[in-house]
Amino acid sequence: MEHYDLVVIGSGPAGEKGGAQAAYFGKRVALIERGPLLGGACINTGTVPSKTLRESALYFSGLKQRGLYGIDYSLRAGLTVRDFMHHKDVVVELEREKVQQNLGAHHIDLFRGTASFEDPHTVAVATSQGKTLHLGGEVILIATGSRPHRPAEIPFDEKHVFDSDTILEMDRIPQSLVVVGGGVIGCEYASIFTALGVQVALVDARDRLLPFLDAEISERLRARLAELGLQCLLQERLGKMERDANGVRLTLQSGKTIEMKTALFAAGRRGAVDGLNLERAGLALNPRGYIEVNEFYQTGVPHILAAGDVIGFPALASTSMEQGRVGVCHAFGFQYKQRLATMLPMGIYTIPEISAVGETEESCQEKKIDYVVGRAHYSHNARGLIVGDTSGMLKLIFRRADKHLLGVHIIGENATELIHLGMQVLETGGTLDAFIELVFNYPTLSETYKYAAYDGLGNLSGHKLREG
Length: 468
Hints:
- By secondary structure, the chain is of the alpha/beta class.
- The chain has three domains: 2-148 and 270-332, FAD/NAD(P)-binding domain (3-Layer(bba) Sandwich); 161-267, 3-Layer(bba) Sandwich (FAD/NAD(P)-binding domain), CATH 3.50.50.60; 352-461, FAD/NAD-linked reductase, C-terminal dimerisation domain (Enolase-like, domain 1, 2-Layer Sandwich).
- The protein is 32% helix and 25% strand.
- It has 13 helices and 22 strands.
- The strands form five sheets. Strands 1, 2, 3, 4, 5, 6 and 17 form a seven-stranded mixed beta sheet that branches. Strands 8-15-9-10-11 form a five-stranded parallel beta sheet, covered by helices on one side. The protein has a five-stranded antiparallel beta sheet with strand order 18-19-22-21-20, sandwiched between helices.
- Strand 10 (199-204), helix 7 and strand 11 (231-234) form a beta-alpha-beta unit.
- Helix 1 packs parallel to helix 8, helix 3 runs antiparallel to helix 5 and helix 3 (47-61) runs parallel beside helix 6 (184-195).
- The radius of gyration is 24 Å and the shape is globular.
- The model has no long low-confidence stretch (mean pLDDT 89).
């Protein structure tokens, strides 16, 4: 048996960064990856591929140019899946190489094979050559990610009916697509294919898209996608999905039917722990299908950590990386990275993109916080007009009593970049005045912070101040 200070299971963001953190401080680290490719879902089937496809959709559809010049670009004739996927393939391969280089730079031992617990300190690795290796770990980090929920009644065939992993393996750009599930993955792919000119319908049982978002932002997303041509069927539950010679037929519980060439089922994910034999380590999944952890990412067995998608929400690469680092630093007593930041940004790469951090109007109402809102619209911003985004908006939520910033919500061009300024003010306990006092480059979208703050001051005083 090989003995290590840390044994990591999974090479996604949580596993890679957690392992590198321990190795950086001199610990001996082993990392086990059962898949043929490094990087986990983040690089291979989730974050990076879908975001790169989004950029490809914007490029090939000419969507940005339509807003700039009023020209009705049609999708390039003869566009193939190879054309559409090319940039994604290049980016993904470069990201995989970065993971490989990072493991090498930190002298982390990489083991290819399927991991399973023998006992709380021992992990067996079954290799593709038929061998079984045994690794002992003082600390073990489970970072195996999640997998799509695949109900038995859904006729997945990877030709007409896909999940959020296999959609990347499609051999054609479909003429029409129905997306079941209005969560992040469903909304992102629905917007990508809508931008490409595909006829898309989205079905979700809830009363609005992405209900964790501020309701105003959620509604602006729905309205913008409707303008692009998306058919959004909310408060509709799937009754039955069938394949036929022409594609896919959905019967909703309301009695409505939808017929499309292809379907994406994107309603739920579960922790990817198949074959891990968690019970031998004294662990079990919670009712939602994830591993429970405390604030230091310790499971019920203190020397076994879990981080990333395998522990559930928010299941974002950005937070997964930090969870892995925080867990490892606490486990080994490093005086470094002792906690996750208070404010965690949400980045959603729909078209338009969305980013948010902090309180929503709805959460303020639930907590009985007396709040005020300030808004700035891209249509009133010079850079917004220049780049052709006239539907974007930045929204600030702050406490009435002392102007303390509570939440920042952005929908539109560069939302996921712009969020960080607001997040910094939130993290440091700042007020609306921070944006008033700053000088912003002109013309920039960042200027919307200043004018949203002015709008908020006007609302606070009961009258609109003259901007400027």
